[in-house]
Amino acid sequence: MTLHPEKNITKILLSTKSRFVGNYEEDEILMTHAIDGIKSREYEETDPNYFILAIKTHPLNKSSIAFPDYTHYGDVICIYLSILYGKRFDNHGRVESLGYFWLPNYLHFGRYDHNLPFNDRDPRPDLEIPLSFHEIKRIAPLLHEGQLDPRFEGFLISAGRFYVHALQHAETQPEIAFLDLITCGEILSHFFNCDQDDLLDDKIKKDFKRIEDEIKGGDAIVRYFRSQLSNVKRKFIKTILYLLNPYFFQQSEAKENWGRLTQDDISMRIKAAYDLRSRYVHRGVNFGIWIDPTLLSRFNNEIPLGEPVIDDKELKKILIKSPTLIGMERIMRFCLLRFMHLNGIFIDLRLEGEGLRMPEEAAEDREDN
Questions:
Q1: How far apart are CA 209 and CA 206, in angstroms?
Q2: Which residues contact 369 (CB under 8 A, 6 or more apart)?
Q3: 3-state SS track over 43-110
Q4: What does the H/E/C string look like for 135-198?
Q5: For residue 2, what pLDDT is reported?
Q6: Percentage of residues in the chain with pLDDT exceeding 70?
């Protein structure tokens, strides 16, 4: 018997503010509790809880010059767990790997607001997934290579990384966290192959038709203009609406009815959220104070409370229409859950069904009928 760490097992320290029970174990993976012997009862409600992720990995190759770093497995698991449970998970790095002990990192993670829904100790009410590691079985296909489409997995990890980053910085950098959630949605939007005509509004379609009919060589002109139209915003909105479904609006976390997202105005609010992103990226307009989740965390309002006192009338209008950071987080988590569920990972029957559509599409259907 040897007391040295196993050369083909890597153990990674993870943490979350929420309180979990149970373990998850397969042949090549274990998720279990790490006992904190110095935690005092005084800070029990605010201290994170620690866990060990143990996975089988390849031992060190004798010809290798550099040590392979398996820490990224912890990052990926944090992405999957954060989406599944809707809770913030942090990766503190390896404690054992390649036959060596390693020193984890406790220092670079910011403060927690225990009132926020992704930090508290209650299951998220949308799917009511218990805070037990036994529930990891719902996403078991993600834990095994070769079971799912690699393209889907790549998009999920890329989008999920921005979702996790948003949870980790919501209290300290709400503006950046909000932009992370928008980026998460943008990545998901590029997974789907949309017909470009679906991304053009009715006026542009009519103008293109006039050019083709009334100008010599108009078809070539239209082809050129089409090639220059990226329609990033419209594709983002269409994707988010597709990944939401009517059930999303039945289980709001807002404490009061006035603070809830509704199906009637969700398209307007998603458009406004993207407009906020554009104001920041293209004009350098700061808006973090108006969507800071810690200011009114006791309400968990998904839409703004009152009107911002600012001179910029256009920005004021956008802020009034946009979801708060809490609302945007719930939107993107549900989209990620549906994205997983619709691509071979059965999570919950309530993620089934058709998504929402752009308002003008519904109007066109009414006219046809």
A1: 5
A2: none
A3: HCCCCCEEEEEEEECCCCCCCCCCCCCCHHHHHHHHHHHHHHHCCCEEEEEEEEECCEECCCCCCCCC
A4: HHHHHHHHHCCCCCCHHHHHHHHHHHHHHHHHHHHCCCCHHHHHHHHHHHHHHHHCCCCCCHHH
A5: 72
A6: 82
Residue 4 and residue 285: Cα distance in Å, rounded?
Answer: 55
Output the CA–CA distances (angstroms, integers) from residue 29 to 87, 109, 281, 325, in the order listed: 21, 25, 41, 34
- Cβ atoms of 332 and 287 within 8 Å: the answer is no
pLDDT in tens, 158-182: 999 999 999 999 998 999 999 999 9
pLDDT for the residue numbered 138 = 96
In terms of phi and psi (left: phi > 0; alpha: psi -120 to 50; beta: otherwise), the region of 22 is: left
Q: Could you please report the per-residue DSSP string of 212-261? A: HHHSTTHHHHHHHHHHH---HHHHHHHHHHHH--GGGGGS---SSGGG--
User: Is it the case that residue 52 has pLDDT exceeding 90?
Assistant: yes
Question: In a 3-state reduction of DSSP, which class is residue 15?
Answer: strand
> Model pTM?
0.86
Q: What is the mean pLDDT of residues 58-71?
A: 72
Q: What is the CA radius of gyration of the chain?
A: 23
Residues 125, 249: contact at Cβ < 8 Å?
no
- Both tokens of 44, joined, read 């029990």
- DSSP H or E run through 33: strand 29-33
134 by DSSP, 3-state: which?
Answer: helix
Residue predicted with more confidence, 214 or 312? 312
Q: Please name every residue paired with 30 in a beta bridge, in sequence order, or none if there are none.
A: 25, 54
Q: What is the pLDDT of residues 260-301, one digit of tens each?
A: 999 999 999 999 999 998 888 777 777 777 888 877 667 889
**174 closest CA partner among 292, 320, 315, 300:** 292
What is the distance between the alpha carbons of residues 30 and 240, in angstroms, rounded to a whole number? 34
Strand ordering across the sheet containing 49-56: 24-25, 29-33, 49-56, 9-16, 89-97, 100-101
Tokens, residue 88: 């913030």
Domain edges within the chain: 9-38+45-147, 153-368
